[in-house]
Write a structure and sequence with these properties.
This protein has eleven helices and no strands. The chain is mainly alpha-helical and 279 residues long. Keywords: Cell membrane, Membrane, Transmembrane, Transmembrane helix, Transport.
Length: 279
């Protein structure tokens, strides 16, 4: 067995350091959230307990943790559903060339390169100058769509560029209507990609800060609430909240991955059943 070159060990060490840099802060917060009742925001830890997690479920002197969580959750669902629907519609529309398609594409992508705080400021000004109430479910919802929709549309563009149109032609030859083609042929085939778009939409909305900062009105979403708590909370309850939100995000990702796995398993089973039926 030939000895590995020095570059292999260098790249391995670099990768390990990168992982520590990437996940080290999250792990540190997770460890400090288990401080004892007399613990603080820094090391060394003064005992180990679940005290600060229990404190989260009691009446808080500062902050509206669970109200902000419910707002972020509802807003994430709204953004997720809207992103999926519009992304599918946009992907279907861009399968054929039409006047202004190139300009429209670049306008969609532009919102990704504009600083998020400027979009938040612009959307907030539009709502306030129009006499509309600045609220997380209206202006905040619109501002977040400028962040999630481009990602959803880019995914759908890639999916439909690889889509085999012969499936649709076969369905039309069998008498299927345009809606039946989409419902029974297109959507089942692209279902795993739709799950990915939904995951992008929800997670990007759930933790979005800058585009919600000036568009949420008088009610904070969870990222804004956590930011506000950093100025007046001096106990590890803040770390406990960060740990719970991280676990919640991981659970959401796990649920979406499980759905994709079940869809792929179901499709493989149907394909094997069809193959046995033709033998």
């Amino acid at each position: 067995m030939e000895p590995r070159p020095r570059s292999f060990y260098f790249l391995t060490a670099f990768f390990i350091l990168f992982l520590l840099f990437l996940y080290g802060p999250t792990l540190t917060i997770g460890i400090l959230s288990f401080q004892g009742p007399g613990g603080g925001l820094t090391f060394p830890m003064r005992g180990v307990s679940l005290h600060w997690f229990r404190d989260l479920f009691e009446q808080q002197a500062v902050g509206d943790i669970w109200g902000s969580f419910s707002r972020s959750f509802v807003l994430g669902l709204m953004v997720m559903v809207t992103t999926v629907v519009i992304s599918v519609m946009g992907g279907l529309a861009f399968r054929k060339r039409f006047a202004g398609a190139t300009i429209l594409f670049y306008l969609i992508i532009t919102s990704l390169v504009i600083p998020s705080i400027l979009i938040s400021l612009g959307v907030g000004l539009i709502w306030s100058q129009s006499g509309l109430p600045v609220h997380w479910a209206s202006s905040g919802f619109g501002a977040q769509l400028t962040w999630t929709l481009p990602f959803g549309l880019l995914i759908m563009f890639a999916v439909f560029n690889r889509f085999d149109a012969s499936y649709e032609e076969a369905a039309r030859d069998l008498g299927a209507s345009p809606w039946q083609v989409i419902r029974y042929v297109v959507l089942p085939i692209i279902a795993p990609s739709l799950i990915g778009v939904a995951l992008f939409g929800f997670t990007l909305s759930y933790d979005e800060f800058a585009r919600t900062l000036l568009t949420s009105g008088s009610y904070n979403t969870l990222p804004l609430e956590i930011f506000g708590m950093t100025t007046n909370v001096t106990t590890p309850v803040l770390f406990a909240l960060g740990t719970l939100t991280t676990v919640f995000s991981l659970v959401v990702i796990g649920v979406f991955l499980m759905v994709v796995w079940l869809l792929n398993r179901r499709r493989a089973r149907q394909g094997s059943d069809a193959g046995r039926g033709t033998v």
